[in-house]
Write a structure and sequence with these properties.
mainly alpha, 17 helices, disordered N terminus
Length: 362
């Protein structure tokens, strides 16, 4: 197989996987934030792999063999600040001023303070936590640039420390101002998936053919389903001992790991279904390339769904209700993509608030 073609195919299914994951994020926010469906088994199932998959993809695309030096390090950090932090600050502050003040009947300064100091930044924590992960990764690459083979091992060690710090009873840092301001808890919780994606990218030539084996692919899926059922069973026990909490936390991480691995295996195995020569493939890849647009803007539309939910009959069939939420999530995503496309009519504006690249000068 042609190497370039194989590379493009891998990028295509990665974009498609990211696009599907973004729609699942919007679906979750529609169900929980807008409609108050906190006990949805469907959303609970998707939550097992939704965010881990996002960080896996981020770690995957972060790996680019290059010569690291202080100049390259500064360029990469500066690029990530421009692409992730600045758009987050713009839309987050706008959301706080327009939506949060109306929802909670507070002043704009109080809304700004809530956005900046809230642990989740009113929902905008993802880009900041991801920025921290990139900063850690770039720092490791720079420090061990003369020993590149040791980078995956160092990253795995750091991921292990992050995981230990995320365990129940170890949150001594949770009330620190910097913890809330920098989305530190979320970074600690998900950094291992970023690392797994990065290591996967380094060994994709050996791993991808194995995932395309039907028995391997569906075997991983079966393990995920069994672990998910076991986790649900433990949750229903409603125990409160320290040992139970630790075991439950470890089981949850196993569910997330195999859930993420299941999606990677399925998209890898059936990547032709998401290829750009198919209408669905082109559409979902476009969503995958513009996930930041959807992430930044969809929060503004959720209150409208909440208003519509006042007329919704929650006693209808769960399948119908789930399909309704999916349709709404797709519609919200489409609106965000449309607004993002409109903003791109002004390249400098899109560069500032969406992190889009400026067109090359002819």
């Amino acid at each position: 197989m042609n190497t370039t073609a194989a590379h493009n195919n891998r990028i295509q299914w990665i974009d498609a996987m990211r696009g599907v994951t973004m729609i699942l994020v919007v679906f979750s926010h529609v169900q929980v934030s807008s409609l108050g469906m906190t006990q949805s088994i469907v959303n609970n199932f998707f939550s097992m792999f939704r965010m881990p998959l996002f960080f896996f993809v981020s770690g995957f695309i972060a790996f680019r063999p290059k010569l690291w030096n202080w100049g390259e390090y500064g360029r990469q950090i500066g690029h990530k600040i421009r692409v992730q932090l600045l758009p987050m600050m713009f839309f987050g502050l706008l959301y706080a001023a327009v939506v949060f003040t109306h929802k909670y009947h507070c002043s704009i300064p109080i809304a700004f303070k809530c956005f900046l100091m809230d642990r989740t930044h009113l929902g905008y924590w993802f880009t900041e936590a991801l920025l921290l992960m990139f900063a850690i990764y770039y720092t490791i690459e720079l420090m061990f640039r003369n020993r590149p083979n040791s980078v995956p091992w160092i990253m795995a060690g750091v991921a292990g420390v992050c995981y230990l710090l995320s365990l129940p009873g170890v949150h001594f840092y949770s009330q620190w101002v910097l913890t809330r301001a920098l989305s530190l808890q979320q970074m600690l919780l998900y950094f291992q998936f970023f690392v797994i994606g990065n290591i996967f990218a380094r060994h994709q030539a050996e791993l991808l053919p194995k995932l395309q084996i039907k028995a391997v692919c569906w075997g991983i899926v079966c393990v995920f389903v069994l672990l998910f059922l076991a986790y649900r069973g433990m949750a229903e026990m409603n125990l409160h001992s320290a040992v139970y909490k630790v075991v439950n936390k470890v089981l949850l991480e196993c569910v997330r790991l195999f859930g993420m691995a299941s999606m990677v295996a399925l998209f890898c195995k059936y990547k032709t279904a998401f290829a750009s020569n198919r209408g669905f493939g082109r559409s979902i890849q476009f969503v995958g390339r513009r996930t930041l647009d959807i992430y930044l803007m969809h929060f503004f539309l959720l209150p409208l769904v909440k208003v519509a939910g006042n007329w919704l009959d929650f006693d209808v069939n769960v399948v119908v209700l789930t399909l309704f939420c999916f349709v709404v999530a797709i519609a919200i995503s489409a609106i965000c993509l449309g607004v993002g496309q409109l903003v791109r009519c002004w390249p400098m504006l899109a560069h500032i608030i969406l992190g889009a690249k400026l067109p090359e000068k002819s």
